[in-house]
Amino acid sequence: MRPAEGLSMRLAKYACHPEQTRGRVHHESTSGPRSAFQRDRDRIIHSTAFRRLEYKTQVFVNHEGDLFRTRLTHSLEVAQIARSIARVLQLNEDLTEAIALAHDLGHTPFGHAGQDALNTCMQAYGGFEHNLQSLRVVDSLEERYAAFDGLNLCFETREGILKHCSRRNAQRLGVLGERFLNGKSPSLEAQLANLADEIAYNNHDVDDGLRSGYLNLSQLEKLTLWNEYFPKVQDLYPTATERRWINETIRRIINAQIADLTQSVQQALEKLKPTSVDEIRNSPELVKFSSLMSEKNTQLKQFLRSNLYCHYQVRRMTNKATRIVRELFEAFLKDPLLLPTQFQRSDSEEQPRKIADYIAGMTDRYAMREYRKLFSANEMESR
């Protein structure tokens, strides 16, 4: 028995089974011990776009500190949370991990500030959304294989990467876009990776906010989730340092959210009793927090928006990032010969999208370096 076959014997009927994959755009042989989803995960890890995530902003720009999360560490944390829940629910861990690792491959430098700025620049040319860009990366932009562009991932992995999509864009995506047009759901593995993303970034943004000094413990007293665990941690470990209190509290909140989500999904599955992944796709999304945890999580997100993402120091960097992305785009659009040769197009209608590809692929520090080369007089002697 091949390893992939043994794995399928342990999966629930409603999980995605690798031998039942809807396939790849370009046919490939399936020899070897790895399943189709294991191969997808490995291709993502070895991609250029995945390596670039190390130097892309989560909240804090890469050079602001060595201990803050980056898109790479965030993606690894999402994958760990998602795999833990997938195992309990008997879902496909390899597929769940692949989706989690790939979900931010198309993200711009400077986090959501970069995305918003690039979207504004691209409004007359179809807009920009990092979720669609992640799909574009794995479908066409990666250049690793001689036989095809992109990574040629399975349908199920690509389905999970595409978390949301407008009707206009869905109509261009063929089979992959059908669920957005027909009101259907993705696989449970895809749904789980999406919620694991939310658990990871909410809690770890609290951690980074405290580490930076932009948040303080007195502010967190407003949060129900924080107050459920921080006083208990202090009582249990009265002589511990403040940093250890914070770590223990965040660990407990993550565990509580994982437990709540797992129980909520188990209850939904017990009610639906699905026997195939097709039944999952034809049902409303099942991976949700309980109503009580959802309220607490919403409060946490609103707190972060008001107190961290809108902190004046974060806003200052956001404004700088917006200006860098906007002015790079405008300069390249005005004179495409400023672009590296592989991003230049003779067709003026194609050129804006290739500029977006170039900027979206930049790391924070590369974008800042390109900006200096184009606009700083101090760079006149360098190339």
Describe the structure.
The chain has 19 helices and no strands. By secondary structure, it is mainly alpha-helical. It has a single domain, classed as Orthogonal Bundle (Hypothetical protein af1432). The longest helix is centred in the C-terminal third of the chain and has 31 residues, at 242-272. It is globular and about 65 Å long. The termini are far apart. The mean pLDDT is 93.
Protein traits:
single chain, mainly alpha, 19 helices, Hypothetical protein af1432, 383 residues, 0% strand
Quick take:
The protein has 383 residues and is mainly α. The chain has helices at residues 3-10, 36-45, 48-52, 71-89, 93-102, 111-121, 130-141, 155-161, 167-170, 178-182, 188-212, 217-220, 224-236, 242-272, 277-281, 291-309, 312-334, 351-360, 364-375.
Q: Can you tell me the number of structural domains? A: 1
Give the percentage of residues in beta strands. Answer: under 5%
SSE arrangement, N to C: HHHHHHHHHHHHHHHHHHH
Helix content: 55-70%
Number of helical stretches of at least 4 residues: 19
| Rg value | 22 Å
Structural class by secondary-structure content: mainly alpha
Shape: globular
Count of beta strands? 0
CATH class: Mainly Alpha
At CATH level 2, the architecture is Orthogonal Bundle
Distance between the termini: 57 Å
Predict the CATH topology: Hypothetical protein af1432
- Main sheet record: none
Fourth-level CATH superfamily? Hypothetical protein af1432
Which parts are unreliable, with pLDDT below 50 for 5 consecutive residues or more? none
Give the rounded overall mean pLDDT.
93
